[in-house]
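Example 3.2
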Amino acid sequence: MTRRLTPAERLASVEKEFLLEDIAKCSTWDRFLVEQAVFCVGQANDTFDCNQLRDLLPELSHGYLGAAINSLRSAGLIEHTGAMVPSTSGPTHGHRIALWRLSVKGLAIAEARRPRKAAA
């Protein structure tokens, strides 16, 4: 019988570099999870960027980050603030990345998702 790896062992064995082909093999559920993470960070912050998201997400999801941002932007849930910040990712050599915020539509959806307080 094969021994199952612990979460720590799985994390330690994951390669740091993923090919686009590997990312494409992941399920749509993984992509949905990254979109949800982006939306949640948008709810918790006035503005946000990919630097913040990379710190929260596992390595493999970084490949989905641009697609998730684009998907939410296209759906009108987030919008570019017009500002840029330097990337903290080593391979990018500090190139500029966009600063985002929830749009009016995104804020309305975020408000609808908040739990309501019970009447006393």
